[in-house]
Amino acid sequence: MPLTNADSNSALRLFAVSLLLLFSEVMFIRWLGVELPIMRVFPALTLTTIFIGTSAGLSTYTKPLPQAPVLGFAILSILVFLISATYLPLNSLTLSDSKMIPVSLLVLGLIVVNLTMTFLSLGRSMGTEFDKLPALKAYAINLAGSLTGVVFFAVISWLGLPPAVWLAICGALTFFLTGKKYVAIVSVVLVAAAAFINPAGSVWSAYGKMRTVPAHLVAEGEPNDGSYRLFLNGDFFHGGSNIQPVSSLKELSEKYRQSSQWSRAYRFWLEIPFFVATKFDNILVLGAGSGNDVVCALQHGAKHVDAVERDAYIAKRGKELHPNKPYDDPRVQVHVADARTFLRYSNDKYDLIQFAYLDPGVTLKLSSFLRSDNFVYTKESIKSALDRLSDNGIVSLSFATGGDSPVTRRLYKNIIDAYGKPPLALVQDYTGSCFFLFGPGLKENALPKEIYELGGLRTWPGQGEYTDTRTATDDWPFLYLEFNYGSAFLYFCVITAAAVLPIAVIAKEGLSGKPKFSEVGPMFLLGLAFMLIETKSITQLSLLYGATWIVSSVVIFVILLLACISNFVVDRLKLKDLRPGYVGLIATLILDYFWRVPEHSDLQPMVLAALSATVACLPVFFGGFIFSILLSRSSNPVMSLSANVIGVAFGGLLEHICMATGIRSMSILALAIYLSSALPLIGAKKGHSSPPAPPVEPPAEEPAAG
Known about the structure:
Layout: H1 5-35, H2 37-41, H3 45-59, H4 68-86, H5 101-130, H6 135-159, H7 163-178, H8 181-197, E1 203-204, E2 209-214, H9 215-218, E3 228-232, E4 235-240, H10 249-255, H11 261-276, E5 282-286, H12 292-299, E6 304-308, H13 312-321, E7 332-335, H14 339-345, E8 350-356, H15 362-366, H16 379-387, E9 389-399, H17 406-419, E10 424-428, E11 433-438, H18 449-454, E12 458-459, H19 485-509, H20 517-545, H21 549-573, H22 579-594, H23 605-633, H24 637-654, H25 658-661, H26 665-676, H27 679-687
Parallel strand pairs: 5-6, 5-8, 6-7, 8-9
Antiparallel strand pairs: 1-2, 2-3, 3-4, 9-11, 10-11, 10-12
């Protein structure tokens, strides 16, 4: 049946609000996480708040629309502007600075309230238009808008466009939906403020906000010799240094006597692998950055260096700005790739493999006490590096943690489990750095005694220092995990407040329909299981290509596309039988549980990526199949959609269970929840003549999990 003019208008508005909802969702997840360090302490807060607010809006869609989109966007933007402009860290919810906790909680409260009201309003707008159309056609339009939002943000991330562009898109869509002049005025002001507040030279790469500054302007004692510092999300991340050649430790001490303590210590660090390596003709540098380690390798006579750097912007800066110009040397080949990806496809053998500060401590310093995935330093990754060594090769692994860090203990344990014996471990306490050297070519007593004194090094573990900890693996890649009861309590309180606020709104406004348990129960459980699958899919593809916004966008796009296909099939063929969907879920989730990304592969990268994405995301197709059938049966599709969205929100919290059980366990947990979703349908079928409806897949608003 063709759509009427009124239906066409509702379809267009539903498409626009779905696009705006998805786009603004991923925008706030990225923007708040980058500009406000405290949001990194609560990795699921933004996502959970957005979904709960959206669900509350859908379940009260017949109530008057608040003016929240504009007000919420404005307040959240101003909050980001103020905090980023004043460099207020607000990262103190570890009880280490009790004075900052009230301020931190106030900021969190403002964020939760405004996110809730913004997405509650968007949810009501979506519910209003959704209710005017046939359920499956409305859902198809909702998915199409969400797919477009994902594509928009993926392109923006790839192009490195700044928040001013993000806000301009949100403002244009909001103006289209409201037609209010004040929306245009507020949007223009916010876009102008975002452009003004962005520091000169800042670039948004796939990993965060980068800024390059000459070293002598930010570090006392540094000469104006072309060295520079690179800041990620406002914190020091990496440096391109003028590496002077030296023939002895004594000469090194003399040349760097006037330099800062950091530069002097760093120059010693670069020399360490070349004291213990038997040979270094062919070298692999993982995390080459701007090229400092490459410079040192060339100065020691390396015949070939493979420099692997995952961020194209950092590699580009190194080629353009590094005073030693290492990436112009014909002996160097630069690879813009993830470290694990390079190891997976490389067939070369190396005399020296350097894990060269792939994370200089920023993630550790600013990450959550909860899950923070890192696949570069797992036991499997270290094994892959050992497999790429020549007969007399060594691995050098350095990290920005000292002797008392749980990360240092975990790295040490990972190496023992992968290599079979302890590495030569060194720490530099006054800079908080550690070094691990291991491999068949490691010389005994290779380090000269003077390097310990001149470089401030000592062997580790020392007296009273222990190494027992859980090994980080590809199934449990939580290198930074250190549970903190105080932070956990505050986290619980904030998440509870985020959930209570929408409940208060619903209690005041009243639901827009009477929910039937046999309809909303399965939908809630389908959303819960769906979020586990989405998170696992993003994590699994991060193992292939690194944790970037591009990877997350691709996974979300594939998931939404599969939901579109399943919805199209159900609508076109008028399918009613749920059993094929449940059989497909069981088969694909069992396959997903046993699937492993190979450590080394001859398959083309795109083939392996497509295969992995298919295995990871295929359960979504069958979940979407069930969802669409249930949606077509529902007496109130908007309420069913609301139940599904709230299920997605709680699925974002339930995913943390993998910190105890591992990532693979999410497949089994998702399967159990999917099967549980059929129980209310069975009960309804026994009690009523009309067939009940099973669980459902989450709506089109899929965020970037993690």
